[in-house]
Write a structure and sequence with these properties.
- The chain is an alpha+beta fold.
- Helix content is 28%, strand content 21%.
- It is built from 8 helices and 11 strands.
- Strands 6-2-1-3-7-10-11 form a 7-stranded antiparallel sheet, with helices on both faces. Strands 4-5 form a two-stranded parallel sheet.
- Helix 1 runs parallel beside helix 4.
- The longest helix is centred in the first third of the chain and has 16 residues.
- The termini are far apart.
């Protein structure tokens, strides 16, 4: 039941410790608030295979509550199902689906100055970011409020958009907590603090189930975009020397030989 899921969240002890996790109350509040909202149809279709009277999760609200609980505190059936959910969400991504990663202004400037073409770390599908435009909405959707985060509600930010080409798909993994044990071929073990869930979905605060993927440094496709945003999500002009633009495009310098390097240029 949903009540059981919330109760488990409250009893979810800190890693390596005992007693109630101080984050438990927060997770329970987040789950109750988000569980009352609807999933997007495409994710409901994936998750729906694991929800029902005879399934690991009896209803979508129970799944919503329990996906915020650590793996060790799920039942064996729920552990198996939660792992399968992550695998199914990754397999469901179509070829060349647009992917989305929010980066800091400092990271963006470093990438432009060095011609860095790599995507690395956590990212999601662009479709999952529908309706999240402002810095605060993006932070809440993909939980960029972790300790030490460079992202601040009400301040400017940058978005990377790149297609899920063959290379990126091969390197894209479902990030898991160590509780999952040895990672499967499409998984990677990550030790991250709350609000990282390790279940393949972010602990979003707006009730919009959002897939979470991870890749080690992977060269993005030429034509990938870097979009500079004001705090409200509107385009923000960036000027470097004589070059200026709110959107910058990655270009492979030699169309035949990627080892020559890449450059970021403003879209005219």
């Amino acid at each position: 039941s949903v009540g059981e899921g919330v109760s488990k969240s409250l009893r979810d002890s800190p890693v390596g410790g005992s007693g109630i996790d101080p984050n438990g109350l927060k997770r329970a509040d987040e789950a109750v608030a988000a569980g009352a909202r609807a999933y997007d149809a495409y994710l409901r279709n994936v998750i729906g295979d694991f929800v029902g009277p005879d399934k690991a999760f009896k209803c979508m609200e129970e799944f919503e509550a329990l996906r915020r609980v650590r793996f060790a505190n799920l039942s064996p059936a729920q552990q198996t199902a939660m792992r399968q959910v992550g695998e199914a969400m990754l397999a469901d991504l179509p070829a060349n689906a647009p992917m989305y990663k929010a980066i800091s202004n400092g990271k963006a400037l470093d990438m432009i100055s060095s011609g860095d073409p790599n995507l690395s770390g956590f990212f999601t599908a662009a479709d999952d970011m529908a309706g999240a435009a402002s810095s605060g909405q993006v932070i809440n959707r993909v939980r960029l409020d972790y300790h030490g985060s460079p992202f601040v509600d009400g301040e400017t930010f940058v978005v990377l958009e790149t297609p899920l080409n063959t290379t990126l798909r091969q390197n894209t993994k479902v990030p898991r907590t160590p509780d999952y044990g040895a990672p499967l071929p499409n998984e990677i073990t990550r030790t991250e603090p709350h609000p990282f869930t390790g279940h393949g979905l972010t602990a979003d605060l707006d009730g919009h189930a959002t897939r979470e993927f991870y890749a080690n440094a992977t060269q993005m496709q030429s034509g990938s975009l870097m979009k500079f945003k004001n705090a409200d999500g509107s385009p923000r002009l960036l000027q470097i020397g004589e070059l200026s633009g709110d959107t910058w495009r990655l270009r492979q310098i030699d169309p035949v030989d990627p080892t020559v390097g890449f450059v970021w240029e403003p879209v005219q």
